[in-house]
Amino acid sequence: MVTNSQAPIKVGMLGMGTVGRGVYKILTGNADLITARAGRPVQIEKIVVRDTTKSRGVTVPDGVLTADAAAVLENPDIDIVVELMGGNEPAKEYILKALKAGKQVVTANKDLIAGYGKELFDAEKEHDTDLMFEASVAGGIPIIRPLKMCLAGNKVTDVMGIINGTTNYILTKMTRFGSDFNDVLKEAQALGYAESDPTADVEGHDAARKIAILASIAFNTRVTSRDVYVEGITRIDATDIKYATELGYIVKLLGIAKERDGEVEVRVHPVFIPGSHPLAAVSDANNAIFVAGDAVGETMFYGPGAGEMPTASAVVGDIMEVARNITGGVNGRISCTCFEEKPIKPIGLVESKYYLRLMVKDRPGVLASIASVLGNHNVSIDTVLQKRSDGDIAEVVLIIHRVEEQNLRDALTIMEGMSITKRVANVIRVEGEDA
Q: 289 lies in which domain range?
């Protein structure tokens, strides 16, 4: 039932870290604008924190901060619960309690959405509530709602993006200055772009959670972070960056999701992407997501992928959408869109072009032997560069035509056991040339 009430819509926040502080600043600083746009005042009633005496960098009225989650979850006056705690527990428990109590929920928690989305969205549907999560992917860049709403008439075939600012910053610096990975990582940590333990970023796990979420929405099928093939950037060195530039490519860590013939491939790994591709120009800690649909064609969403205010902007946008739904009596109108079950294609069956860098013995016939092994596995060579020699060892760079990955893996297994091969220095996929 539509309500004409002008009573404030009351918000309870779970957590007030960096993003929570930003949400508080926007909701209080832009209160008049938000009231006008949402149709009713949106008021913060309670904020659950571990330590109510800690300085937050903002002035919070007495009685708003509490250490008791029940003050939000069991408070009948609170309409919207905003979860900004992060992690799996107790965040999942709190969100489920809120949904079962008939409260609307907004979250920025990519771990929960990527790992436990089905359980959460089943609860959302059962209780006719809203569960909004725009801020879980790409910070301040609108992408969840565009996929669910603005592009809903499209059959989306490709989602490919730079969705981790830390790795993009590192690779940008390595490209610009020829820097070593470890040196740039230390710089990123000093600037606050990388955590003291950067594993989730540099090994690709953060991006895997985000691409799982995007793939689920784009292809209407449940994809979890466990379904994503993942490689990080720790094996990329200045030599690979240099050869990429020489060959007309830029090295990026991408989240890639494609649907082909009813199968979904979803992966995170470094790629060589043509310098002319829109994603190649995305630098520093920025994010960008490239989407291809049958009606819209190709489009790209670009902007800051993390940080206090950009991420808070996405959270507040969700809060305002939920507030409009409350006023209109239409909560739960767009629930989970995973209404199909599509198989995930194994990485061995995925087709790509490849860059190979090999260290081999510098003697006649070596290249012919390599070509023979590749040919025996239906792998064909596009480009060959013999770059340098160090004593009796030569460095050979190959670009391989598009091939199923398992064929290349089988060929590399044979090559690694040959007496002419010192080591396979790196293997990097080539993407975006058909974009």
A: 144-303
Under DSSP, is residue 28 helix (H, G, I), strand (E, B) or coil?
helix
Other Cβ atoms within 10 Å of 419 Cβ, number: 8
Alpha helices by DSSP H, 48-164: 70-73, 91-100, 110-126, 144-145
Q: Report whether the peptide linkage leading into residue 90 is cis, meaning its omega lies within 30 degrees of zero.
A: yes
Residue 84 sits in the same domain as residue 153: no
Residues 6+ apart with CB under 8 A from 110: 136, 137, 206, 209, 210, 213
Contact 151, 127 (CB under 8 A): no
Does residue 206 sit in the same domain as residue 282? yes
Q: Is 195 annotated as a binding residue?
A: yes
Other C-beta atoms within 10 Å of 260: how many?
A: 12
Task: Give the pTM.
Answer: 0.94
- Residues facing 221 on adjacent strands: 340
Instruction: Tell me whether strands 80-83 and 9-14 are parallel, antiparallel or unpaired.
Output: parallel
* Per-residue pLDDT, 337: 85
Of 235, 141, 239, 130, nearest in space to 182 by CA:
235
242 annotated ligand binder: no
Question: 276 with 269: CB under 8 angstroms?
Answer: no
Instruction: Check pLDDT > 60 for residue 226.
Output: yes
Given a cut of 60, is residue 435 above it in pLDDT? no
Catalytic residue among 46, 97, 173, 210: 210
CATH number at residue 170: 3.30.360.10
In a domain, 341, yes or no: no
Tell me which residue has tokens 């359980």.
119
Specify whether 163 is located in the same domain as 105.
no
pLDDT tens per residue, range 295-319? 999 999 999 988 899 999 999 999 9
Is residue 1 very low, low, confident or very high in pLDDT (cuts 50, 70, 90)? very low
What is the mean pLDDT of the segment spanning 248-274?
A: 97
Residue 206 is predicted with a pLDDT of 97
Give, as one character, the DSSP assignment of residue 343: P
> Which residue has 């089905």 as its token pair?
118
Rounded to an integer, what is the distance from CA 360 to the centroid of its chain? 37
210 is catalytic: yes
Phi-psi label, residue 94: left if phi above 0, alpha if psi -120 to 50, beta otherwise: alpha
Specify the pLDDT at position 5.
Answer: 65
Tokens of 49: 């924190």
Q: The tokens of 8 are what?
A: 């404030």
